[in-house]
Amino acid sequence: MKQLRNASFPVLLLLILVVTLALFRLPVVDSLKLLFAGSFGDQYGWSRTAVKSTPLLLTGLGMVVAWRGGMYNIGGEGQFIVGGLCGAAVAKWCVFSAHPLPVGLGTALILTACVLGGAGYAWLAGWLYIRRGVEVVISTILLNFIALQVLGYACSGPLQEVKKQVPLSDALPDTWMLHKLNRQMDVHSGVFMALGVALAVYVLLFRTKLGYKIRLVGENARMARANRLDVDRSRLTAIVLSGALCGFAGGIEYMGMAGQVGAGFSQQWGFLGIPVALLGGLHPLICLGSATVFGALFAGSENLARFTQAGATLVYVIQAVTVLGYVGIKAVSDRRVVQEAG
Amino acid sequence: MEFISLLSYTAPIGLAAIGEVLVQRAGVINIGLEGSMLTAAFFGMLASLATHNPWIGLFAALLSGLVFTLIFGFFTIKLAADQVVVGTATNLLALGLTGSLFRSRFGTTSQLISVPRIPSWGGFDPLMILMLLSVPVVWFLLQKTGWGLAVRACGEYPKAADASGYSVNSIRFQALMIGGLFAGLAGAYLSLVIAGSFAENMTAGRGFVAIAMVTFGRWKPHFAFLAALLIGYAVSLQYKFQTYGSNIPYQLMIALPYVVALLVLVVVGKGSSAPGALAQPYRKDK
Question: For residue range B24-61, what is the model confidence (pLDDT) as tens digits?
Fold first, then answer.
């Protein structure tokens, strides 16, 4: 049954893709060709897919850690934004001052700030849950909206670019952007960092004591408590790590692609980490696959502009329906397993 | 006058929250509330635009709020899937669906579309009256009727409801459907009363604020309404500060209702009045 479920996923996705395109009255075959050409057609396509998949992978990994630990973090978006914001704030000090720091040291500082920012913002939600019983789902969502407004304020206030003309922070000079393999393509060193992080999250969750504790608490808090595990502490660790990953995603987006932050800094990247994590079976390595698929859809959807202006929002529909389809298949097959066993 | 404008700031969250009280008392958290509101706002606008009749718009909003909530119900009640997972997915679906339809119909340029609005008399509109009436009605339904008792049993201890011959899942479906209609009203209020238009993601988290207000309102319709009034007040402040030319940045004023919602949750905590079986799917065989 499990094999069937995993095998059915690509078929399901393709089916949903075709149906969605048809429902929006787009020429199905041509659209599919364009989607494919834009995402895997040539080296530029691959490169676009890689950079779109990177924030998805990192926020997806963030969701994996939190959800495995029993913390429904929906706040990837806020943590992503706060990460980018902290990065831009540190950059203001170490890049755009009279005496800029050396690039290597500065980059390390900026990325650290992003990670700490995201982690701190997630810690807030974790603390609210443990100390005040505020549901993580609700608090993280509210924190997303607060982060978005703070971002809007910061980039038209204290972090606004020097000329004070547009609501954006100063653009990082080219030398400060993450290293690119080829100047013509988007692929930057952040893509490879994200791959490394995926491996690290896998090792953490499945090969260390800490990861085991996080998973145990997530699966059965009562049993964990009976075994004298510090449940609260493990939950807090899970959500803080999750926030750190989302903040890092914000940092990579800032230093790899955007170069500056503004109100449109996050294209729902934090939020879209949730479908990536769910369809990745909450497993860090399978998430590599789901992030690539969705990254490819986003990369290819830019090509659809010829037929429709809906582009990226169509991908939301496809993602959402895929998650629902996956959940549905899982629920039905779980029930069948129960019935067969009973 | 002051009070009427306060009510109008309150209505989208108040309507959604009153419906959500009923849903949560039956043991379901409709995380997809935001999506139901957004879909309702969109289709309400579309129908009003197509027919030049805001009442047909309202009907379309109610219908789409209902249908969208039923999708959530199918997965969470019928298939007993996780409510957070499904709710997250339906919210994303609503965002993508309304966004795609809106863009493919009106383009990405932010041209202002204007549709016939639901009439109001001196700021007093029929949905506002409906909201005020629904507070005692929902209270009466929950506390004084046999059906309400069944709803509360499904939320507190579904096995007991089952044992006394109620079908837990149908009761939950019924509560969810009423919640869907309220979500439809809340969405219609945004597009057909306040804006007379639609913008992508125009609900902007109001559904989640409504869920937070249900917790703050201790799962009681009258307290949830009062909690929504508090948010309405926070929203009204942001316009007041703008007119007085205060130098508080406007983004921080927009964030105020969310901050207030979060702070009240911090102050009241979870407490013990939450329905006992909240967010737990019910299966007979277990």
Answer: 999 999 999 999 999 999 999 999 999 999 999 999 99
Q: Is the pLDDT of residue B97 over 50?
A: yes
B28: amino acid identity, one letter: V
pLDDT in tens, B129-182: 999 999 999 999 999 999 999 999 999 999 999 998 999 999 999 999 999 999
**pLDDT of A232:** 94
Q: A254: which DSSP letter?
A: I
Task: Name the residue ranges covered by the structural domains of chain B.
Answer: 2-107+123-268
Give the CATH fold of the B2-107+123-268 domain. Answer: ABC transporter involved in vitamin B12 uptake, BtuC (1.10.3470)
**Chain A nearest-CA residue for B99:** A313
pTM above 0.90, yes or no: yes
Q: What is the CA radius of gyration of chain B?
A: 19
Write the DSSP assignment of B124-183 as a string of letters. B-HHHHHHHHHHHHHHHHHHHSHHHHHHHHHHH-HHHHHHTT--HHHHHHHHHHHHHHHH
Which residues of A are less than 8 Å from B82 in CB distance? 327
Of A138, A321, A338, the CB nearest to B93: A321
Contacts of B100 in chain A (CB under 8 A): 24, 308, 310, 313-314, 316-317
Residues of A in contact with B259 (CB under 8 A): 146
